């Protein structure tokens, strides 16, 4: 009997130690410790033993049972630890792999030039104001002294949603909106997108940018206009720039002028950027027409001011020497990456 127990112990320990998974362990537990297990059978048979052998064999059997139980527990823990390690190994990140490159974004050249222009005017005390892209005919035309028979009001020149409502064809409506709400002094710039039914070519696009400026106060003179705009031109195109003002016409200013600067590429000698003239027109400006002031309820006898409008797309084309406006809107990274 003792020998049977010793053998049972040896075999079971061997088998348990070599078990490779939970299934095998469970089978071994049943084989030795189950209700009909080998060791259980031995313990059940104790009663048939001679009286003097009973305690010895009984004690030995209990020791063997304890050893097997302990070993099974130990083996379960080992297997669980192994399972966890394998899981961690599978989930771990290979830090030796090269990472994916994240290209930082860039500022679009139009946005960049807008930021530069805004900085100049904000430095001169102007506030930046924005308005809606979808505008009423009243704000887009009437309030700006553009009469009903003016060609820019025709269906084929603007994008209409329905009669009376259109995509703004310039940023000037925002001037009126501000003047209606605010009393002078007013000192604002209005950057934004505008829309016209232009055929797209190297210098035209159906969507483009404008930046308007408006200054209304008492006793504003044309000299103030020239001072502000010359400072702007020098900050963007170089501090040695000279300017000239050429008489022009705009419905909402009187007198009106085009401002030209001496060519920054050839310093006025003549080149292909200035079309050999030595001068480049950069913006339109003028003293605000008294009719516009009256329309918003300002007394033109007390208040006057100047307004100007420029094309950030054109300023960017000049400054960065780009000869085709379409490049700005093609989304070609080879172009955009240069800025
Ligand atoms: Zn030139």
Structural notes for this entry:
The chain is of the alpha+beta class. The protein has two domains: 2-91; 109-336, BirA Bifunctional Protein, domain 2, CATH 3.30.930.10. It contains twelve helices and ten strands. It has helices at 2-18, 22-33, 38-44, 53-91, 109-123, 137-140, 173-181, 222-237, 290-295, 312-319, 326-329, 333-336, and strands at 127-128, 134-136, 160-162, 165-167, 186-195, 207-218, 243-250, 253-262, 279-288, 303-310. The strands form two sheets. It has a seven-stranded mixed sheet, with helices on both faces. Strands 2-4-3 form a three-stranded antiparallel sheet. A hairpin with a 2-residue loop joins strand 3 and strand 4 (165-167). The N and C termini lie far apart (94 Å). Zinc ion (ZN) binds next to loops. Residues 263, 265-266, 270-271, 273-274 line the site of zinc ion.
